[in-house]
Amino acid sequence: MQDALGAVQSVLVLGGGSDIAQATVRALVRRRARTVVLAGRDPNSLTGAVDELRGLGATTVEAVAFDADATDTHDDFVAEIFDTYGDFDVVLLAFGVQGDQPRAERDGRVAVDIVRTNYVGTVSVAVPVAERLRAQGHGTIVALSSVAGERVRRSNFVYGSSKAGMDTFLLGLSDSLVGSGVKVMVVRPGFVHTKMTEGMEPTPLASTPESVAAAIERGLAKGSEIVWAPPQFRFVMSALRHLPRPLFRKLPI
Ligand SMILES: NC(=O)c1ccc[n+]([C@@H]2O[C@H](COP(=O)([O-])OP(=O)(O)OC[C@H]3O[C@@H](n4cnc5c(N)ncnc54)[C@H](OP(=O)(O)O)[C@@H]3O)[C@@H](O)[C@H]2O)c1
Fold first, then answer.
1. Strands 182-189, 139-144: parallel, antiparallel or unpaired by DSSP?
2. Rounded to two decimals, what is the model's pTM?
3. CB under 8 Å to 100, separation ≥6 — which residues?
4. At what angle do helices 157-176 and 121-136 cross, to 10 degrees?
5. What are phi and psi of 44, to 5 degrees?
6. How would you classify the pairing of strands 226-229 and 10-14?
7. Whose CA is nearest to atom 28 of ligand 1?
8. 119 is catalytic
9. Are 193 and 206 in contact (CB under 8 A)?
10. Which ligand 1 atom lies nearest to the CA of residue 17?
11. What is the pLDDT of residues 59-75, one digit of tens each?
């Protein structure tokens, strides 16, 4: 349960190694979150983050195994985590892969790997998470979508399509949860300097994990359903969404 001042007290992160997720939980712990479960493919790689969060004042911080691609395990995973740690105020869906677009255009298996993690993995785990949050009667699913899914670009349409899929799924899930006490907040960052984008040329309005974390905090405080990071993307994407395709194709993005 959030405390009397509305601060988040407990957070489950799926994709616990994500730079954006780690900046977000650091910010939430600074604002009194006390229980953090970081779930990732290799829990041992999360030891440094666990120590850091304990140092910032979190009292229960654990790293557990979770693979977004292992969809058969998701129901049991979610049941075990909620049975072990109790209610969560925030469940942050932060896993994702950029993938190799040139290879994915030529090899369907590579394309499916991207879609499996980003879209199928999200659908598979979001449904049992929503069920548990519905049962507890409160909580917010915060999902890292992307502006890339808002209008899919030629240069990364496989990733973009997977984000479009997860984004629209989560908006529908959000609608289905109205009245349950549970919310879904879809976060649409532009280019963020993280491991995922290392070595890539930044696009305009590039940001940092800390600024996305701040946008997430503001969104949680306001109860937002969609968060653009930075906020100017709301207007940029609104214009780009309606640009005729022959023109859109020519943009150097
Ligand atoms: N960086 C950007 O420009 C940007 C922009 C918009 C949206 N996003 C989205 O933000 C989210 C976080 O990305 P980030 O920028 O923080 O990148 P990141 O630091 O590379 O984080 C991505 C995380 O996803 C995890 N992951 C990948 N496949 C997984 C799987 N099958 N099961 C469990 N975890 C898996 C990775 O875990 P491992 O450590 O095991 O590899 C890694 O911790 C992603 O969904 C990304 O699409 C990023």
1. parallel
2. 0.97
3. 110
4. 20
5. -65, -30
6. unpaired
7. 96
8. no
9. yes
10. 43
11. 999 999 999 999 999 99
